[in-house]
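My current task is to audit a protein record that another person submitted. Alongside the sequence sits a line of tokens, each denoting a local backbone shape. Please read both lines and tell me whether the tokens look consistent with the sequence. Do not assume that whoever made the record got everything right. Thanks in advance; the entry in question is below.
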Amino acid sequence: MKRQQISYHIKSLICVLLLCVVTAQAQNRPPADTGKIFSLEDLQVMAFRYHPIIKQASLLTDAARANVLQSLGYFDPTLKANFNRKAFGNTDYYNYWTNELKVPLWLAGADLKVGYDRNAGTYTNPETRTSLSGLSGVGLSIPLGAGLIIDARRSTLRQAKIMVEYAEAERVKQINTTWYEIAKDYWEWYYAYKQLRLTQEGVDLAQTRFKAVSNQTQIGDKAPIDSVEAYVTVQERIIQFEKNKIELANARLILSNHLWNEEAKPLELPENAMPELLDGNIKQVNKLALDTLVSRAADQHPELVKLRAKGGQLAVERLYRQEMLKPKINISGTLISNRRSWNSYVPDYYDFGWANHKVGLEFSFPLFLRAERGKLREVKIKQQQLDYDLQQSGREIQNNVIASYNSLKAYEAQLAVQIQSVKNQNALLKGENSKFELGESTLFLINSRETKLIDMRIKLESMIAAYQKTLAELYYKAGTRQTF
């Protein structure tokens, strides 16, 4: 009899000690949800204002516009002046002073030239010799063959303007890619947060049950082995809780990669920050929205816009290469005069008129045109390759959008089943608790049903996070991003 009393007191003491340990562990657990909600919309506002990659994407368009400005330089007026003089042995050999203002014109690839020459001296070539007052001239240089429709400078400018559209599409693509990665990291953080909270809830339930069983054991209503079993459940859930706590910390760090302030300094996501609470509410995408996304992708997807821009560039290049198959025929004409200013008097036979002129004609034509024909053939081949690429890319983009939509619909069906399964499991757990209170069930069954319910709720949150990531993927595959 004394041995039974001693054994009973020892078991009671063990229960008290275990109860003290569980109470200490409960005091060290994180507090309940008291933080501030950090929604995906809040993250989007911060990212699009301060994220360095998104800022970097804007530089693509700026660089393309700078290239257009550089190409416009081929049409800048050019002022040239040259002075040479030789004097030796009291003889003024020559005194050359030539000036020219050249203004490239868009029309017909012509050049407008305004010049002033003063060539004097004993040994100056009679062909270029002028009076001491010099000669003024106004003239044009026009290509009648190759270069009349399009020339190198107009081709370069047109292609540079087309590349602005290409750069803008690349900017949109880079922003969409960055935002897709941000959204995925956000929903990873959401799942890690929910998983930790559900695990913490499981720890709290197990600790509460252990305290109740321990108290019943001390008064003799429960066997001491029930206390040990309840404590083992507490330990298992605490181990899982500690593991999930590390996963949440890592998810928070990864999401912090996208947080920057206006001074371009990195920010850390606060530990008390909470993701938005969905509670199983998801934004469903209907068939009409899918058709809209497919149509938008066919017209505005950055990859297709880039390919079309590249096609426009090749079209300009092809026109230029076809123009180069023509012979080069350049004519130039200049009206000359002794006039140095509009207010001075100059005799009619020395003033601007058709009788006072300089004309020139230049002709050249490669007999085989092998270089020109080879370049034209290369451009045509690139156009064919681009057409095939455009067809294949368009097909893949459309199918990728539809595939993401199909995945969303599958998740919607699974979520509906999972939500109902959680409700059913919760009903089973309540029933098992009622039976346990009447002494018709065991602690093992209670813990099993409760653990399964927690696992099912964690799986539900995992499916919600996966659905949201697939939703972000749907918009990304369509070449756009989700709006709020």
